[in-house]
Amino acid sequence: MSGLSVIFAPLLPWAVIAAGAGLAALLLALALWRGLRGWALRALAALALLGALAQPSLQREERTPLSDIVLLLDDRTASQTLSDRAAQTDAAVARLAAEVQALPNTELRRITVPDGAKNAGTQIGAALAEALAAEPRARVAGAIVVTDGQAHDAELAPALPAPLQLVLTGHAKDWDRRLLIETAPAFGIIGEETRIRLKVLDEGAVPKAAGTEADLSIAIDGGDARSYRVEVGQDLELPLTLDHGGQNVVQFTLAPAPGELTARNNAAVVQINGVRDRLRVLLVSGQPHAGERTWRNLLKSDAGVDLVHFTILRPPEKQDGVPVSELSLIAFPTQELFIDKIDEFDLIIFDRYGERGILPPAYFANIRDYVERGGAVLISAGPEFATVESLWQTPLGEIMPARPTGRVLSEAYLPRPTDLGLRHPVTAGLEGAPLPEGEPGPKHWGRWLRQIELTDATGEVVMKGAEDKPLLVLSHAGKGRVALLASDHPWLWDRGFEGGGPQLELLRRIAHWEMKEPELEEEALIAEVEPGGLSLTVTRRTMKEAPGPVTVTLPDGSTQDLALTEAGPGRFSARWQAPGPGLYRLKQGDLERVVALGPASPREFEGTIASAGPLGAAVQASGGGVSRLEDGVPALRMVREGRPSAGRGWIGITPRGAAAVADIRVTPVLPAWAWLALAALLSVAAWLSEGRGKRRG
């Protein structure tokens, strides 16, 4: 195959040659006006001169024809497994591939489109762009995509140089019902109503038998489900109340409808982090002392804490004769605080408080009942705790985790975590903790100077002090919690005495443990999920030496035992790869946890009805068409560029006629001297012709 063309290699810019051509045309017009007989020869001479300047050449190309390329994309994503779509796809791909391969001088490029990574859905646009980039555009005669049309990256579809033919699987009678979560909060306040907006949608050729209502059930953390009858197609707001902090897994399940394509999109999982509203703390200081401001600074610095603080400045036994009318002190509202509104507080702190008749025994009994109902009390003990004014002598003594002996240890000592404290989240990992006794090294914490001796500890002793006596004891009482700190000298750390210590962090942990913050629970089962993946890290925090395995219940009801290995003091963990997405239940002893892995409703099943909508713009821009396989596999034709490329029962590709140039030969029309000689001869002939005309005249 060869091609012949004329090329130019001008000696002067084309603008100069054009100016010369204009001058020659002007002189030719003048010759015609004057009636000169040699005007034609002069015109030919001018053309010869212009040809010499333009230097025309004949270019002959030897070309090798190249084959056309047809792209065949085979959608094998999850939505293509619905109904008989896989069989439709197999038959269509086999026939179309055979027809393409039977065409003369045509090659087939077959691309399989799998599920997108990390729930990205069907990536037809990216696959088409990648396939087109790998081939010369001049050879691409068309692209055929066998799919249900649910492309989730249609905007990435490239501009094709040939028709894009969309061959749809599925049936016109297909319909599906799915659950759509429109808005769901990431956080919810414990005990307050949270609302989730959702909608039940019917898509496709919905039969009348499907009805206009559906059954929707809601379960929190895998518990008992509550059922609702909801309207299809209506925006719904469902109330939800969280009863614990941390992660709450809310599962929505829609009852399957007869005849719908799939139930994979009938479920949704929302994870809401339960948080407390502003925590309310009541701080009662028995008398002003150096450490009183420590508690106040700690609690006031926390933006999530509402602090009510009272200091007993004028006890009943103080009789100095000052008239009551001249006193500016605020009366202690004991009944309002400890009877009427006690349940509004999350934590009550008694800081060096001695029982001196301000609160009657009935009030302390009410505080005890408040703790057993789920409240919390923290006692920061001073010397009065070892006297007859001790809170131990009140009804609160029934729930205290240790008993004072009446002895005050006034000596310097170094607070240390106990072996139990090294595992307890309140004291584990405190910055600069002292090394175990007997080990060489610096003592990173400063010493305290006073401690109340405790005995008969019934709670967890997490810190010890002078003479290895209990310094910090934590315990559970009914549904509530009690903490007893047997010293009023934590403020020495705040002042940097002998290097200080983590005073604020320790007191913060004690307070938040009492308020049942999930990250400070000593017995906890924690599951951390990799974003978008199926890997799960299970952590068991415990005060026991070695917990047993964690039992994992899979979505299908089967179970697996997961062995844990020690990851640190009081922490045991394991990493586990789940076999698939779904709701998993973890159980170890009395602790249970529900966790959602992967999407409950994968993106592949968000839209299941076969449709040309997502790729419609790309098909129209390329001049292609849409065919449905339920009408039969379309025949393949070759059509000229610019002609319709799809019709009833057929689709077309456009042959490109591409070729590779094997050789190029360039031959001048005339050599330069020949152009000049020709121009000279024509000029002489014109002169002679004009001379004869004058003699005859």
Automatic annotation (TrEMBL):
Alphabetic keyword roster: Membrane, Transmembrane, Transmembrane helix
Positions of transmembrane segments: 12-32, 39-58, 672-689
Domain of life: Bacteria
Residues in the signal sequence: none
Entry annotated with the keyword Nucleus: no
Keyword presence, Manganese: no
Descriptive protein name: Glutamine amidotransferase domain-containing protein
Organism encoding this protein: Paenirhodobacter hankyongi
